[in-house]
Amino acid sequence: MLKLITASILGSLLLLGGCSHKIQPVKSAKAQLGYKTQSHLELRALPEPAQPIIVVVYKFRDQTGQYKPGTGTTGWSTAVTQGATSMLIKALQDAGDGKWFTVLERESLPNLLNERKIIRQTRKEYDAKTKGARVQKLPPLLFAPIMLEGGIIAYESNLITGGLGARYLGIGANTKYQRDMVTIYLRAISVKKGLVLKSVTTNKTIFSMGMDAGVFKFVGFQELLEVEAGFTTNEPPQMAVLEAIEKAAYSLIMEGVNEGLWKFKDPKIQAKLMKKYLREKSAIVTAEFDQKGNLIAVRDPSNPKYGKKFKRKGPRRR
Q1: Which CATH class is domain 35-154+185-199+244-282?
Q2: In angstroms, rounded to a whole number, what is the distance separating the alpha carbons of residues 98 and 13?
Q3: What are the domain boundaries of the chain?
Q4: 152 contacts 80 by C-beta, under 8 angstroms
Q5: Whose CB has fewer CB within 10 Å in the chain, the N or C terminal residue?
């Protein structure tokens, strides 16, 4: 029996070693154009609006104030990305394949104004002398009726942790997992009145898992066999933030349509999409239990066709 267990563990370790080039590639991967999430595809597939919406985004900050935990101490690296503003702008530009929003630059407004000042000064000094005419003026900056605010408001770590392991006579394996969550808040504000038109909140889980196996055993006199193998899978937090931001942009569009702030160009498509969105928004998975605490049914309102019933266990009542 012991020989069989040892052979099984060694076979598993050899398989892990054989696919190690896939888990940890020696060569680095090529640069990619972008990370496509499910929310990105949903956002980009939105139909054309009645008219584009001009918006500005000043700052979409990390409001969590959290740092990555280090070994024994807290490091200086933040737990989430500091480039959420760029992510939000990109998500707005991708909405409806670029037909929903016209985004104006405001994050680097001082740099923009400084560059316009340089252009005016250059034209004033050189253009008027060479042409003998009036200095050509720059066109005025566009202004937006709607301003978007918000940020990353929460990052909860170790919401769920767990693992499983076993070891027998120096031979064993174990696995462990961890789930975190990031929360995004986004609101649309009327620039003229200062009213908050609509606000939405989205969240995304971040899952990490590790697995390893090893042998630590004396196979003979003063002969020690020690073998270790393992891998870890971590979902990038910035990708989770990106997907949550894209979902927030999608939700803001649909909430605005529901409130009559803006609308789709095709009323029929609008009614169909709103029905789907409202069903998703109100979806709450419910579970039913009997008096003894046994699960008897699970219902998902977002999918009316889904309904699972469980058979009762134990002796039947007469």
Answers
A1: alpha beta
A2: 50
A3: 35-154+185-199+244-282, 283-318
A4: yes
A5: C
